[in-house]
Amino acid sequence: MEVVELRSALLSNAEVFMFLKELEAHRKDPGHGRHHTQFHNEDFQDLKTVEYEVLSCLQKTPCKVQDAPQITSFMDAMTSFDLTKAEKLMLLNLRPKSAVELNVIIEECEDRLTEAQQNALLEVIREKLPYEEEEPEGDPMVE
C-alpha cells in the first residue's frame, strides 16, 4: 500500500460517524457473500472493535444529528471569519458555547478576533449547529 497524498482532506466527526454507519449497514446487508463476511470476521476483528468503539463514542456527541447540508451551511458561514481549516473543523466538532471555549480552540483568539466577533462566531455556531443536549437520567450523586 502506498500513500499517494498525505493529509489530503480533513474529516469532521459527523463525516466519520456517517461513514461508519454506512459501513455497518453495508456489512449487515444480506447481499454480502459468505466468503466476504467470513474473511471480515476472522481477519479484521481488531478493526471492527475500533469501529465499534469510535461509533460508541461519537454516538454520545452532537455529530450524530449533523448532516451534510448543515455542515456545508456552517462552513459557508465561517468564511467571514479569519480561521484556519483546522480551527473551523474543531469548531464544528466541539461546538463551543462560550468565549472561554473559543480561546482554547482558536490560536491567539483575543488578538485575532474582537469580543464582538467572538460573540458573532458563537451566535453562528448556535444558529447553524443547533443541538439540545440530552439530560442525564437521574442524578448520579443520588443513590
Notes on the protein architecture:
There is one protein chain. This protein is mainly α and 143 residues long. It is 59% helix and 0% strand. It is built from eight helices and no strands. The longest helix is centred in the N-terminal third of the chain and has 16 residues. It starts with 12 loop residues before the first helix and ends in a 15-residue tail after the last helix. The mean pLDDT is 83.
Index terms:
143 residues, mainly alpha
Task: Give a quick rundown of the structure.
By secondary structure, the protein is mainly α. The chain is about 60% helix and about 0% strand. The longest helix is centred in the first third of the chain and has 16 residues, at about 15-30.
Structural class, judged by helices and strands? mainly alpha
Arithmetic mean pLDDT: 83
Task: Estimate percent helicity.
Answer: 55-70%
Computed over alpha carbons, the radius of gyration is 19 Å
Helix and strand topology:
Layout: H1 13-28, H2 34-43, H3 45-58, H4 68-77, H5 85-94, H6 99-105, H7 109-112, H8 115-128
Helix pairs in contact: 1-3
